[in-house]
């Protein structure tokens, strides 16, 4: 599936990287919905991660991208939303592997961990790489089955 629209959010720790990723999205013609602060005052990441994740599960956007200082808080919060498979990625190998193997629909990045150049490469690869299915489908299905078994 070609990605044509993403939801993107950051907390205060990820504003600059969020803006740099948005420049990339604009340069390749991917539309976006943006959430998160313009000013550097502290904001809490959980609500932002959940807002983006709900956009994804409600199919208002194709994928989500989340940025905080480490990417960890955002990824933990996103993975609480039923139907979300969020990966915190800091290298290009994982960027394609997590699409091919895990069919991740949300990407988390740590703005205090990686620079804008690597982040752009990760975003590009993650957006362009297809899910392989096959032997991975049963594994991803086990995660979905567990989610479905919960109230
Ligand atoms: C905010 O200080 C920081 O905790 C947040 O950006 C993120 O790294 C949380 O996981």
UniProtKB/TrEMBL annotation:
Instruction: Please name the InterPro entries in this protein's record.
Output: RpiB, RpiB_LacA_LacB, RpiB_LacA_LacB_sf
Residues at which D-ribulose 5-phosphate binds: 11-12, 69-73, 102, 112, 135, 139
EC nos: 5.3.1.6, 5.3.1.-
What's an example Gene Ontology biological process for this entry?
pentose-phosphate shunt, non-oxidative branch
Which EC main class describes this enzyme? isomerase
Q: Which keywords are on file for this protein?
A: Isomerase
Sequence similarity: Belongs to the LacAB/RpiB family.
Tell me which PANTHER family the record gives.
DNA DAMAGE-REPAIR_TOLERATION PROTEIN DRT102, RIBOSE-5-PHOSPHATE ISOMERASE B
What is the protein name for this chain?
Answer: Ribose 5-phosphate isomerase B
Q: Which organism is it from?
A: Listeria monocytogenes
Q: Which gene encodes it?
A: rpiB
């Amino acid at each position: 599936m070609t990605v044509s629209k993403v939801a993107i959010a950051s907390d205060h720790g990820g504003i600059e990287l969020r803006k740099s990723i948005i420049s990339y999205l604009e340069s390749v013609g991917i539309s976006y919905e943006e959430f998160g602060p313009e000013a550097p005052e502290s904001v809490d990441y959980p609500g932002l991660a959940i807002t983006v994740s709900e956009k994804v599960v409600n199919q208002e956007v194709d994928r989500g991208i989340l940025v905080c200082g480490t990417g960890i808080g955002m990824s933990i919060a996103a993975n609480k939303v039923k139907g979300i498979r969020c990966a915190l990625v800091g290298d290009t190998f994982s960027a394609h592997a997590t699409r091919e193997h895990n069919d991740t629909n949300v990407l988390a990045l740590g703005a205090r961990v990686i620079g804008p150049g690597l982040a752009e490469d990760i975003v590009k690869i993650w957006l362009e790489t297809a899910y392989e299915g096959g032997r991975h489908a049963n594994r991803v299905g086990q995660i979905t089955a567990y989610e479905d078994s919960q109230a």
